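Session log. Operator J.P. requested a structure for one protein chain; no other inputs attached. Running the standard single-chain path with token output.
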Amino acid sequence: MTPAPFLREVPDGIVLNLRVMPRASANAIAGLQGDALKVRVTAPPVDSAANEEVVRFLAASLGVPRGTVRLLRGATGRQKQVLVQGCSPARALEALGPWIGPGT
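Structure written below.
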């Protein structure tokens, strides 16, 4: 598979570059924006609610336990980096494929 610009493999899993849009009408992956995966969440950007919703949504989307998804950078901004432990790039691309389109 071709490496995706938003995904980087690390020794214990993968790191995803995200562009988060809080206060959306539904949780969804909205494609790519530059080298980031655009993620919409319903939670507001108050008291880490949006960050927690991103972690929950990604865990469910990738089919991994919530405890294996951790915010690395971007706690107060829209640009975020998330570590997903125990997830391979192939598994992530397979799970995210319907949202990001072919050829990624």
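Operator note: Strands lie at 7-10, 13-21, 28-33, 36-40, 69-73, 79-85.
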